[in-house]
């Protein structure tokens, strides 16, 4: 397998899958979000977070605030931070009304809280976030490259520019969020992006990196042959 400089995180909220990935050392860290928690059927945020931190005691793990105003987010951030030393508090760059959360990001960073600033889509947002971070405080800036690509726009120019801006401040790392395919890991690695968080189906493909493409024709036909046999279908 090709050596990667980019760190690969697992994006999900299934404790058993997280535990397995941690124990097998297939990823370097973990991210969760409200949608992933809902999908995984999480019923109790605190119980979930405590179980996750118990399962993953010393790798980076991000939990997101649920509030939609700075006062609520600040209270939630204090609780989330208390879950463990390895925890990053995810704060969205804006709330549902489009109001900037930068004042809160600045306030929390000044208290040395490790943040993962999420839902980022523009270089102006990246620049503002980096400006608000206290130098030396470990912080992730999560740019949703996949959701940008979903609009038909190439996210690479933004990702390249974001790497430069993030690396101007000590402690700040660029995180590639909404990964769509294994090739995104290679793209993130090539541009010097620090972290990419991947859904389970992409994590499973990581060992394929560097595989000999010449083998794939025979493998593909073998797959068809297996399915022909199990389906019982025939032409002649
Ligand atoms: O923690 C983060 C980003 O910091 C991730 O969980 C991030 O929210 C997810 O990668 C994205 O929400 C996934 O987006 P999508 O694949 O559902 O479009």
Automatic annotation (TrEMBL):
Pfam families: TAL_FSA (PF00923). One of its GO terms (molecular function) is aldehyde-lyase activity. Keywords: Schiff base. GO terms for biological process: carbohydrate metabolic process. It comes from the Bacteria. This is Transaldolase. It comes from Macrococcus epidermidis.
């Amino acid at each position: 397998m090709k050596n990667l400089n980019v760190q690969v995180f697992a994006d999900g909220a299934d404790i058993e899958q997280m535990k397995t990935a941690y124990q097998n050392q297939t990823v370097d860290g973990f991210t969760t979000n409200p949608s992933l928690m809902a999908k995984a059927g999480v019923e109790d945020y605190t119980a979930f977070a405590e179980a996750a931190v118990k399962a993953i005691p010393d790798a980076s793990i991000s939990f997101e605030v649920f509030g939609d105003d700075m006062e609520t987010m600040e209270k939630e951030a204090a609780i989330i931070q208390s879950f463990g030393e390895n925890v990053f508090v995810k704060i969205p760059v804006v709330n549902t009304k489009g109001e900037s959360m930068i004042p809160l990001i600045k306030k929390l960073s000044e208290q040395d809280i490790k943040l993962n600033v999420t839902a980022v889509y523009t270089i102006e947002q990246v620049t503002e976030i980096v400006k608000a971070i206290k130098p030396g405080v470990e912080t992730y800036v999560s740019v949703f490259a996949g959701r940008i690509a979903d609009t038909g726009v190439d996210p690479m120019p933004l990702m390249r520019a974001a790497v430069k801006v993030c690396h101007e401040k000590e402690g700040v790392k660029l995180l590639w969020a909404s990964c769509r395919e294994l090739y995104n890991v290679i793209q993130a690695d090539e541009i010097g992006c620090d972290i990419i968080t991947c859904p389970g189906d992409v994590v499973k493909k990581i060992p394929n990196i560097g595989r000999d493409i010449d083998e794939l024709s025979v493998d593909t036909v073998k797959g068809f042959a297996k399915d022909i046999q199990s389906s019982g279908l025939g032409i002649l």
